[in-house]
Design goal:
Aminopeptidase, 8 helices, about 25% helix, 6-stranded antiparallel barrel, about 350 residues, Elongation Factor Tu (Ef-tu), domain 3, alpha+beta, 9-stranded mixed beta sheet
Length: about 350
């Protein structure tokens, strides 16, 4: 299987934060088919370790399996379902979307986020965006008893109905490209590392609960205690009119590297990458002839914000792929960027040796 096939399969799997088991199971089987055995920690992170040179810094490379969505908070007597938001749902994109309710151990149940009939919508409501707490989901059951018979209860996870929509050329639209694309890159990287002749100890981690307050990767880092942490996640593509003033990150122009991220909305955290890792990726990109884009954004936050503070501190950097329409039901990436990112990661990791100095100062 290649990146396109892996990404397609991963994007069709429901995996709300805290309910990532379908994604983890697929990844476990996919890796096992190539002879690679993984382990799972108590939180649900999937971990694959390639032992290496004990004198070189150890690296943890990770991408999150989970996606954003909703959680059932109430089933009305008429069978309509009320939810709470899970993660950074773009509420302006919710109405009339198809969703999938995923009761544990039961068949998933399709539903539709209700929208008021246009013919009956007064002018005062036409441009109002409801919150997630305001919406109702219609599964067609018609009563609370029928909904409960289908296994749906308070706490049932809900995701946008998974879809894959290949676009022209190498462009790819799908549900939860953030961060199933990162997960697919990590699989491709694992296959490359399995053939390497040597190098540092590398831990690959498919992490959980990133969309729920950035939890999973921190637990993995506390156990693995890496010297270096590299997160794979989206980079905001700024090559459309609505984001043109936010940067120079273009879809199809190669992988990206973040030089600055800061959330700035409630969670006052972010990442300023370690200068040795910035040089490492710049040198690897130049040596391999891989175009490397640069990003500096406010409003972006990843697990790395907390991983970097584990133990005595972890040298950290965010790398990733340009993506359009973030946190919407269909996100868009370019497969050429994912292929370039895989090559870049393999090249950068191959340059980590005992002489890579991570200490700050003269």
């Amino acid at each position: 299987m290649g990146l396109r096939e892996d990404l397609s399969a991963l994007c069709l799997l429901p995996g709300l934060a805290g309910h990532e088991e379908p994604v983890a199971a697929w990844l476990r089987d996919r890796l096992l088919s190539t002879g690679l055995s993984t382990r799972t920690d108590r939180l649900g992170n999937l971990i694959l370790t390639f032992p290496g040179d004990a004198a070189a810094p150890t690296a943890m490379v990770f991408a999150h399996m989970d996606q954003l969505g909703f959680v059932v908070r109430r089933v009305e007597s008429d069978g309509l379902i009320r939810v709470e938001r899970m993660g950074g749902v773009a509420e302006k994109a919710m109405l009339a979307q198809a969703v999938l309710l995923c009761p544990p151990g039961r068949a998933p149940v399709p539903g539709v986020v209700m929208v008021k009939a246009h013919h009956a919508t007064p002018a005062t409501e036409k441009y109002v965006v409801p919150t997630a707490a305001d919406i109702r989901i219609d599964t067609g059951h018609g009563s609370r008893a029928a909904v409960e018979q289908a296994g749906i209860r308070i706490g049932t996870p809900v995701v946008y109905h998974p879809r894959v929509l290949p676009l022209a050329g190498d462009r790819f639209a799908a549900t939860a490209v953030d961060d199933r694309a990162g997960c697919a890159v990590l699989v491709a990287l694992a296959e490359r590392l399995a053939r390497r002749p040597g190098g540092p100890t590398i831990h690959l981690v498919w992490s959980v609960q990133e969309e729920f307050n950035l939890r999973g990767a921190v637990v993995a880092a506390q156990t693995l205690r890496p010297d270096i942490a590299i997160q794979i996640d989206l980079m905001l593509a700024t090559d459309t009119p609505d984001l043109a003033d936010r940067g120079e990150m273009a879809l199809g122009a190669g992988p990206g590297m973040s030089l600055y991220s800061f959330h700035g909305r409630g969670t006052l955290n972010g990442v300023i990458p370690h200068p040795a890792l910035v040089r490492l990726f710049e040198d690897a990109a130049a040596a391999e002839g891989i175009p490397l884009q640069r990003s500096a954004q406010v409003g972006v936050l990843t697990d790395l914000s907390y991983v970097q503070t584990v133990g005595e501190g972890v040298a950290s950097i965010d790398v990733g792929f340009p993506m359009r329409h973030s946190h919407s039901p269909l996100e868009v990436c370019d497969l050429r960027d994912l292929e370039g990112l895989t090559r870049l990661l393999a090249a950068a990791l191959g340059r980590i040796g005992p002489d890579l100095r991570l200490e700050r100062g003269p």
